[in-house]
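Curious: can you check?
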Amino acid sequence: MVCVAQRAPNLVIIFCDDLGYGDLGCYGSRIRTPNLDRMAAEGMRFMQHLSANPVCSPSRASLLTGRYPTRVGVPRVLFPNDTAGLPKDELTLAEMLKPLGYKTMCIGKWHLGHLPEFLPTSRGFDEYFGIPYSNDMKPTPLLHNTETVEEPARQDTLTQRYTEHALRFLNQAKDSPFFLYFAHTFPHIPLYASSRFRGRSALGLYGDVIEEIDWSVGEVLGALKQLGIEDRTLVLFSSDNGPWYQGSPGRLRGRKGSTWEGGVRVPFLARWPGRIPKGRVSNALTSMMDIVPTFLGLAGAPPPPKPLDGMDIWPILSGRREEREREALLYFDNIHLQCARWGRWKLHLARYNTFAYNPAPPGGRHNLPVDPPELYDLITDPDESYDVAPENPQIVAEIQRRIERLMADFPEPIRRDYEETRRRGGSPYTPGALPRPTV
């Protein structure tokens, strides 16, 4: 007999904004995160999980579509003066689940278009409560569905109010399958914490903010247990990219906006009592793009019309397999291909770091090739300090072959930029671009 959990599982995604790889207790932080640490102990903690981009909008586009942001038309951060959003011909996870009878809600930061036709209630979500983009952008409206209920949003109470709406949704949706996308506004700056948490942490306001997010996670997990539905609910916790000016990338090099690992590798926790083994730590290479195909498989949903770039990682989550063989994962900055990750190896091909110069250098920023490419072994060298390309020419060649195969299927502007970068040649202003010394 097939159990209800197999037939119609619930999905809760708790997604932070600019949370660093080293910002949780279970990842080595001194910030107190008992609820997230418990979530890791009761489920699985991933050590090699990648966002699909080092900044907000592109990462979120990939999370909800299972496709590269450069493929779905959201390669950069969207701003309040933009009139575009996630294209209507790209399906979100909520739109894929609605035909199966799922109740859906989006809470918090959306950042995939602020005009009514792009907001969550037009993209498969029954209800929305949150700020439609980053909390440092102006104006800063708090929306309920498409109506502004507060402007500017009072941010010191946001986490509390987000949590109240999440608990209300869980109570209302408990008798049917549901998808809750709970996208916290923080720890994106400016930082705010409620009076209950302000001043509690030994690591200042940033620590206060993380401890309040941890409290919120505990409230959600507690509600699932109290409602008797935790055994049919998969809860995922992660971040859109690495930390910005505050927060810790752990041992990783780089931060938000950078395609070094500190900008793209993020915490990833998964909990489903009775279905995901307790206390597992996974070193499998996984991506934010894997969430859509994994949940579609669990829900029995048909694949979307457009091909997915992620893969179903349920065999890893369920403990049946340690890892799955996968194609190389590509790192983009805006439309520019920067790196590729294949297993333990990461190849740096170009650098276009929009946060590297302020103001921009004379002539503007360019995507300049790293010539010759740099290769890093992320198992022995997680902070990407030692280029081992000269010792591993066969690995470099194999990754380059995989890149060529993958790029052939991208939209024409992305392919053209890739070819133009290759033809551009090295630059003395690009690390690694000068010829290496012979002695």
Observations:
- Residues 1-5, 428-439 have pLDDT under 50 and may be disordered.
- The two ends are 69 Å apart (CA to CA).
- The CA atoms of residues 53 and 59 lie 5 Å apart.
